[in-house]
Amino acid sequence: MELEQSAALDAESKIADAPGDHKAELRLWLRLLATNSLIETEIRRRLRERFDVTLPRFDLMAQLERKPHGMTLGELSQRMMVTNGNVTGLVDRLLAEEVISRKQHKSDRRSHIVSLTEKGRRQFARMAKEHKDWIAAMFGELTQSECVALTKMLGKLKTSVRIAVTQS
Amino acid sequence: MELEQSAALDAESKIADAPGDHKAELRLWLRLLATNSLIETEIRRRLRERFDVTLPRFDLMAQLERKPHGMTLGELSQRMMVTNGNVTGLVDRLLAEEVISRKQHKSDRRSHIVSLTEKGRRQFARMAKEHKDWIAAMFGELTQSECVALTKMLGKLKTSVRIAVTQS
DNA sequence: GAAAAATAGTTTAGGCTTAAAGTAATTTCA
DNA sequence: TGAAATTACTTTAAGCCTAAACTATTTTTC
Description:
The first copy, chain A, is 68% helix and 7% strand. In chain A, helix 2 (23-51) packs across helix 6 and helix 3 (55-65) packs across helix 6. The longest helix of chain A is centred in the first third of the chain and has 29 residues, at 23-51. In chain A, strands 1-3-2 form a three-stranded antiparallel β-sheet. The first copy, chain A, folds into two domains: 1-52; 56-140, Arc Repressor Mutant, subunit A. Chain A has helices at 2-9, 23-51, 55-65, 73-80, 84-96, 118-138, 144-167, and strands at residues 71-72, 100-104, 112-116. Chain A is built from seven helices and three strands. In chain A, a hairpin with a 7-residue loop joins strand 2 (100-104) and strand 3. At the A-B interface, helix 2, helix 6 and helix 7 of A face helix 2, helix 6 and helix 7 of B. The first copy, chain A, binds a DNA duplex through residues 44, 48, 54-56, 72-74, 77, 82-90, 93, 105, 108-112.
């Protein structure tokens, strides 16, 4: 309905710029979702097949790997963009596998610091090496500069989303 | 491996093209993951808040909305990129809400056709309208042509991934 | 046409995830 | 200082999701 109006007003822009349509945005969102899902499913499959590990556990270990002194559960949940309760469960399972350790925070008795054990560091190193190659192979059709450009544009999208989410 | 060659040949590109590094690809993957997660979390939150519905249910209804004659569970699971068992469960819950119906396939007695009920169509229409505006607002900082360009690049990435996944 | 293979869907066990409510410790501030 | 608010984390209930094993039916193959 609105489509007809704008087409009448602005013959140049045609359907593409039609207000209230938002086809391009929806299309982008569906594409983003599908692409992400495709990669994620494959990574999950390989992590399980090769290392009998899940993506969330791999993610958590990846976070810890960057902080040799460990981090609190709250910090982890922030960085992983998941709830505290989720982290509690993941930490429990990784503790059982002895790839991480948990100790009381020195000054704040509510808080705990988790970090990779030696076993965890070794295990993660092995996984990260292959993981890196999987991504490289999957992204192989893109040139270096295409990767950089795409990263940049996604950065802009991310900023756009953040603005909208914060405002609402 | 081919990368090494090219790095040797092209001294200008230096670290950026360092072989076995793959920083740009990893960075892109993390950015993709984070962006997707940000949007998805917000959409889930709003769907729940406004319509007391989950994203998977919304997705399933969106698939059916495009096929007035309905589709089989297998077709659904393919389009949604999830397992058959997952669809079975979702369909059960949506049946209970009476927004979809299920009937035997005419010629293949293993198969079932599900489609939106009138109630389901009405409900989905309401949700889709708002959903579209949420996406439009979240993507608002991007111009129309940026959306199109980003969609195109993600298409290339998707193709790249498909090639790698199919080969392996 | 009957055995074998493939297909459509369901069930099961287990992990992931969330929101909401709960516990314990710390901080704020009146 | 001590009550109120906040913070860090855990628990719980319910839904999502998967792989693997299963049932029922259809298709293939000999």
